[in-house]
Design brief:
By secondary structure, the chain is mainly α. It is 72% helix and 0% strand. It is built from 14 helices and no strands. It has helices at 12-19, 25-38, 45-68, 70-76, 89-110, 115-131, 138-157, 161-185, 200-205, 207-218, 229-254, 256-265, 267-275, 280-297.
């Protein structure tokens, strides 16, 4: 009798971490914090369940990405887990489904998230993974995934439509930022020094900063929790602008992969920028995740 082969070869943990693009996971956590606190939430156990559930959905979506891309990866990215033999095709599908089902179960069972927003997030994840190699417009779906994380977290905190609309507006800004990264990432494996995408990605990257400026300018009465608050807003805005323009542009000019990785870490800066409008301490928490993401990206591929 022959010995049955296993679906996953030695190095299971690393394979799972690579499939899930784990180095970017803290950016999902800061997304949840931003959506929750922008909606007026306070510290609550529900935040932990949201982070756990949305993290599982993130892992599921990233793993599904490899499941759908297996044929493309065999030609263009043979180092990925499936073509390299680290995990079988069947194994990657099973793992992805387990992550997705587990994430939905946690959010439904332990949070007050709106089921419509949760369903929208799951649908956006599936649509992006299925279409991103076939349809240029999938970049907007990728952005919508992050926007919907805001709305899932925000709807767990409040059911007030005006508040959720405000959270969604900020989420759209983040969505544009992520869509720009997705657009730039298309040239990651091309033997080119520069992308021919023009100025559009860089305009999209700066959308969150524009939204914060508008929010700051249109308020009739600014109520900050500490005298340093305006300085925190300005400081986060400066950090964000420098991160996008100086670091992103310089790295994209030399190496698209490194540039995209840098901008992915900048999602923490977007969340910090938004939360600077609410509580400067929350803003600093998000910024604290930035070096963690950069450290993780040295050991686990971000894309």
């Amino acid at each position: 009798m022959s010995t049955p082969t296993t679906s996953v070869k030695p190095g299971v943990l690393r394979t799972v971490l690579v499939l899930g693009r784990t180095s970017n996971l803290p950016t999902v956590w800061t997304n949840v914090l931003a959506g929750w606190f922008l909606a007026g939430g306070s510290w609550d156990w529900q935040i932990g369940w949201l982070i756990l559930g949305v993290s599982a959905l993130y892992f599921g979506g990233m793993t599904l990405n490899d499941a759908f891309d297996v044929n493309w990866d065999r030609k263009h990215a043979p180092e990925r887990p499936v073509p390299s033999g680290a995990i079988s095709e069947r194994g990657v599908w099973i793992l992805a489904i387990v992550w997705m089902v587990g994430g939905v179960a946690v959010v439904v069972a332990f949070t007050h998230a709106g089921l419509g927003w949760l369903a929208g997030l799951v649908a956006a994840i599936l649509l992006y993974d299925w279409s991103h190699k076939k349809w240029p417009g999938a970049m907007w779906v990728m952005g919508a995934c992050r926007t919907l994380v805001y709305l899932v977290a925000g709807s767990s905190s409040t059911s007030e439509a005006p508040t959720l609309a405000a959270v969604g507006t900020m989420g759209v800004g983040l969505g544009f930022y992520v869509a720009a990264i997705t657009l730039l990432a298309k040239g990651e494996r091309k033997k080119v020094e520069r992308q021919s995408t023009g100025i559009l990605p860089f305009l999209l990257l700066l959308t969150p900063l524009l939204l914060v400026v508008l929010d700051f300018a249109l308020r009739e009465k600014l109520t900050f929790q500490a005298p340093v608050f305006p300085l925190v807003i300005v400081g986060c805005g400066v950090v964000f602008a420098v991160w996008c323009i100086r670091l992103g542009r310089r790295r994209l000019s030399n190496n698209i992969g490194h540039g995209v990785t840098t901008l992915l870490a900048g999602i923490c800066v977007v969340d910090a920028l938004y939360l600077s409008l609410v509580d400067w301490k929350l803003s600093l928490i998000c910024l604290a995740f930035l070096p963690i993401v950069r450290l993780l990206q040295r050991h686990i591929p971000a894309t």
